[in-house]
Amino acid sequence: MQPQTSVRDISTIDAQGGGTAGSPAEAQADAAARLLADIRGLAPALAARAAEFEAARRMPLDVVDTLRSIGVFRMFAPRSHGGLELTLPQALEALAALSRIDGSVGWTAMIGSASAVFLPQLPRTTYERIYRDGPDTICAGTIAPLGKAEVAPGGYRVTGRWPFASGCQHADWMLGLCVVTRGGKPLPGPAGEAGPPLIRGVVMPAREWQIEDTWDVAGLKGTGSHHIALTDTLVPDANVFDFPDGRACQPGPLYQAVPHLLALFHGAFSTGMAEGVLAELVELAGTGRQQLRAPAPMRDSELFQAELGRVAADVRALRPVLMAQAESHWRHAQAGTLKDDALYAQGVQTGVWIVTTAVRAADACYTLAGGAAVYDTSPLQRRMRDLHTAAQHATVQQRQYVGAGKLLLDRAKVH
């Protein structure tokens, strides 16, 4: 599997943001276009291996290497360290294109590339260590605070077990969030004794973590999202970060309000997946398939045509909604005003709505396909499983609408 261009060809932006394509913005746009072209060029070969990904329950290393070679894992890495540092809309376009190919490919790319927005929360010395071998570093982990970090001389003694560590088998580094304790008792967080306990993130080289083989699931089977664990591991202060309230050691719009971006990453994934499932249904109908006891082939049935048109309307709405929110977030990020509760709620609303709509579209496509969709060989059932699994992620569960609703009601009280 050979990409059309190499990462050397894509990386036209130097440490100061200039490059061979003219202005920094032009060079950035050129890098994004090259990346999209390579992704589309790889699409047939990657899609043909979907069953292999599921059987292996992970992304094969040659696929990871190919994605690395075209620059997928440096999308969010800073230009100062050799990364592409694409704009938020550009990066989401790439994630949607990867997800349209296959769910496990898109999810693996999303997690592996987006980890770059978390790493600037670390102290500068550790950040430089992570990127000393280049910008294609992959970090896996989870932001659920399921570890315990006992205060110790020079750092913390960390013990914990974290689920859903997508891509952990090919990661260079891993991270997890912990409740900080002293003498076994949780320390109070910023809100004091009445609020949640103090939370800190820990980042360590992948070799320091244990991987537990637990990824036997309904969907996104090829992502290798196993449990990871640390047992009484001394984590130095330099490998600890404050999330979500830490100050980034790296300048740049992408790194200043990380929680505000997460739901849009999921929105890009689900947008690509929904576009893919609709295309699969149209392709099936185009074969002339006629279902048992149906009076006409699918493509000639007015009932099928009407339902297809309805689903297509839902899917067609996803990308404009995603990109409108992405462009709004990006403008605020560039202006330094993204860290705002209302903007956070907007991003979450957008992400949850996109994911929910994409799941509904996948269900409808699966139903419209009839008996052909039930086989493991059908991409329709695989995409339906993948989307339902993705929708279970805490970031885009429908309960997250609560924050937006509460904000509206609080504003109504003021007026």
UniProtKB/TrEMBL annotation:
Q: What is this protein called?
A: Alkylation response protein AidB-like acyl-CoA dehydrogenase
Q: Name the species this protein comes from.
A: Inquilinus ginsengisoli
Q: Does the keyword Oxidoreductase apply?
A: yes
Domain Acyl-CoA dehydrogenase C-terminal, residue spans: 265-397
Entry's PANTHER family? Answer: ACYL-COA DEHYDROGENASE, ISOVALERYL-COA DEHYDROGENASE, MITOCHONDRIAL-RELATED
Ranges for region Disordered: 1-24
Q: Which InterPro entries match?
A: Acyl-CoA_DH_C, Acyl-CoA_Oxase/DH_mid-dom_sf, AcylCo_DH-like_C, AcylCoA_DH/ox_N, AcylCoA_DH/ox_N_sf, AcylCoA_DH/oxidase_NM_dom_sf
The organism's lineage is:
Bacteria, Pseudomonadati, Pseudomonadota, Alphaproteobacteria, Rhodospirillales
Determine if Oxidoreductase is one of this entry's keywords: yes
Q: Keywords, A to Z?
A: Oxidoreductase
Using the record's annotation, list all stretches that form the Acyl-CoA dehydrogenase/oxidase N-terminal domain.
46-114
| Any Pfam family | Acyl-CoA_dh_N
